[in-house]
Design a protein that fits this description.
By secondary structure, the protein is an alpha+beta fold. It folds into two domains: 243 residues, Glutamine Phosphoribosylpyrophosphate, subunit 1, domain 1 (4-Layer Sandwich), CATH 3.60.20; 223 residues, Rossmann fold. The chain contains 17 helices and 21 strands. A seven-stranded antiparallel β-sheet has the order 3-2-4-1-10-9-11, with helices on one face. The chain has a six-stranded antiparallel β-sheet with strand order 5-6-7-8-12-13. It has a four-stranded parallel β-sheet with strand order 16-19-20-21, with helices on both faces. Strand 5 and strand 6 form a beta hairpin. Helix 1 crosses helix 7 and helix 9 packs antiparallel against helix 15. The chain is globular, with a radius of gyration of 23 Å. The chain starts with a strand and ends in a 7-residue tail after the last helix.
Length: 494
Amino acid sequence: MCGFVGIASVRDCAGDVLLALQALQHRGQDSAGVGALGSGIFPLAKRLGLVSQGFSAEDLRHLPGRVVLGHVRYPTVGKGVLADTQPFFYRQPGVLMAHNGNFMNVPAMREELLQDSIHLLSRCDVEPVLCLFARELMRLRRREHSVADAVTSLRLCFEKARGAYALAAGLVLEGKETLLALRGPHGIRPAVWGSRGQDWVVASESVALDILGARRQGDVEPGEMLVLRAGEAPQRLRVWEARPAPCVFEYIYFARPDSIMNGESVYTVRRSLGEYLAKAVRAKGIQADVVVPIPDTSRPAAGALAEALAIPYREGFIKNRYTGRTFIMASQTERQNALKMKLNPIRSEFEGRRVLVVDDSIVRGTTLNHTIQLIREQGATQVHLAIYSPPVMYPCYYGIDMSTREELAAARLLPDHTRGPLDKQQLRELEARFAARLGLDSLTYLPIAGLRSAFDRSQCAACFDGEYPLPPTAEERGWIEADRRACDQRELPL
C-alpha cells in the first residue's frame, strides 16, 4: 500500500506536493519521492524514510515544474530501498508515473519487455507498467503524442499488466504539460481529485486535497482516466467498463478517518462497523465496566460501540506519535521493537475493571500479544476483545502487506480446508481458540454479515471471504508469495 499525489498547476508546485505527501504519510513510511516536468527536463528526488525528515528547501530548488508527482511507499513488491522508490521516469517519450496498488504478473511483464531489450532498474511493480505504456506510445508515433494516443497505449499496456491500481502520470500531450489520473476497472485502490483555482490535484485520499486547500470534485471512477491541465477544463474518459469492488480494508484500517473515499466518510463507516459489532457483543451477554480503543484507528468504532452498549468510553492508552504504524513496517523484528515504544497504558482506567478493548483487525497478532499483556499488568479483572472486522483468513494480492496465508494468525488456527467466510459455529470455535491463545476472557469478531450491512455495496473483502474480484493465477500467487518471503524473513508471532 502506498500513497500518491499529482498536481497540474500554473506555477512550480513541488513544495505543495511535499506538503500533501505528509498528509498521506500513514500510507507509507519506507521512502518518498517527487518528480516534475520542468521545461523539458524531468528532475527527480527520492529519499528513504519520512517526508519531513528526507527533504529540504534545497531539494525544492532542484524540482522546478508545473506538473509534479509525489509518492510515499510501503512495499508489497520488492523492498523498501531507494532504487524501488517512486515516481519512476522513462526517457521515451518522457513519462513520470507513480501508483498505489499491486501488479501481480511482474515476471510476465519483464519477459515481455525483454523481447524489445528493455531492462528494468528496480523490483518495483510499477516500473514495468511505465515501460509498457511508453513503448506503446512510441510504437504509435515517435513524437507529438495526443490524448487519444495515451488512451490507446494504456489499453494496450493493461492487456499485459494485471493487478489492482490507481496511478498518476505526467507527460507532454498535444504540446501541453499534462497530468493523467487512472483507476483500474475494479476500483480496488482509491483515487480522488479536486481543484484549487486554476490548479488540479489528484491523490490517494481526500486529506491530501484538504491540506492544500483544494476543493474535492469527486473520485476517479473505476475504469476512468482524467486528463488534467492547469487552467483548462478536465477531460473525463472511460478507458474500461467499470466493475466496482473497492477495498474494505481501506475503511477498516488503512485510510485516515477524515478521508472521503468512494463518496463515503471513512469515519462514518467505522462508526457503523462499531454499531454492528455491538450487536455481536450484546448477543454474547458480555459485561464490561469500560470500553477502551487501541489507538488510533479503532476510536470511531469503539465510540459507537460504547454508545450502543451504554458502557463508559475511556482512553486507556497514550500513543507515541513517533513510532509509525507497526502493521506496515518491513519486518517482524521492526514491528516488535516499535511495539515496545508504541503504547503506554493509563493504569487507573484498567485497574480493578472489566475491560472491553476494541481494535480494527487481527492480522499477524503481534500488536495484540503485547497489548493484552500490558492490560493484564495494569490490574484488569477481565479482558474482552472486540474486533470490528471479520477474521483475516486469506492473503491480499492487491497491495496490502499480507501476501501469504501462513502469516495470518486466524488462518493458522483453522483447518487447511477452510474456504469462504466462516459460518456461526466456525466463528465461535475460532473466537474461543484465539481467546485462549491470547489469554483473553472473550474474543468477538464482527460477523461477515455485519461487514456487508455496514458496507452495503460492491466491495473487495477477499481477505475475509476469499472471493477475489480479479483472481490471481497459480503462477502469480507463487511469485507474489516468493517475493514477500524473500524480502521479509519474518517470524510467525503466534
